[in-house]
Amino acid sequence: MKKVLFPPVVTPMRFPTPEHAVMSRLGYSRWRTALSEAEKKRYSSKIAGYARLVRPRGCWTALPVEACTPSGFRFADGHELVSAKVAERYNDANWMWFGAATIGPELPEACAEAMRSGRTADALIADAVGGECADAAMDFLQKQASAVLARNGMRMAEFRFSPGYGDWELSGQRLFFSLLDMDALGVRLLDSQLMLPEKSVTAVAGIVCG
Q1: Is residue 180 within a helix (H) or strand (E), and if so which, with residue range?
Q2: Which helix (H) or strand (E) element contains residue 133?
Q3: Inside any domain, residue 39
Q4: Rounded distance, CA 70 to CA 91, Å?
């Protein structure tokens, strides 16, 4: 296979507001929860208002796997991913995909302000919008990357894995800050290994060639 490079270019995104997913996160079901038309309009208005504060952007890259061991992956450039669960999940991967997405700072700041001012209901709605839009941004980024990889004869797994899940320590976030232009993305890493702005997401997925 020819040598392929995937520079981590930061790109903006556009996708519909996942209103049904937001309502589900808030505990409402289309099938089991009865809301009046007035309540539906109120929720839709609040969700749409907070969604206007979302500024989704993302970047990704992919690295060829040098070795997959029971404890993780080693890459030719010297980077390592330490997680037995990730190695088990993607043990047949020839490459690994690394992605990061954020919704920007405006919505998290609005959520924090609503909480400080005692508008708990608004804060819950804002948090739900932020969480679902962050997931949607990562979905968008992964699909975008999959299309690029497919043109190079590469197939990416749909399932993705993030630091802090399973046995992959949250300190695994540092790998993304080493590989991707997180400064240009507007995301920084705290000493706690959490990211700012909130609702920023990182993830990996295995890639099989051929």
Answers
A1: none
A2: helix 120-150
A3: yes
A4: 9
Q: Is residue 76 part of a domain?
A: yes
Q: What percentage of the chain carries pLDDT values higher than 90?
A: 88
| 166-175 residue pLDDT tens | 999 999 999 9
122, part of any domain: yes
* 163 preceded by a cis bond (ω within 30 of 0): no
Question: Is residue 188 a part of any domain in this protein?
Answer: yes
- Tell me: cis bond preceding 197? Omega within 30 of 0 counts: yes
For residue 118, give the CATH number of its domain.
3.40.109.40
The residues near 193 (Cβ < 8 Å, ≥ 6 apart) are 163, 170, 171, 173, 174
pTM (predicted TM-score): 0.92
Segment 155-175 shows an average pLDDT of 95
Smallest Cα–Cα separation from 144: which of 88, 173, 101?
101
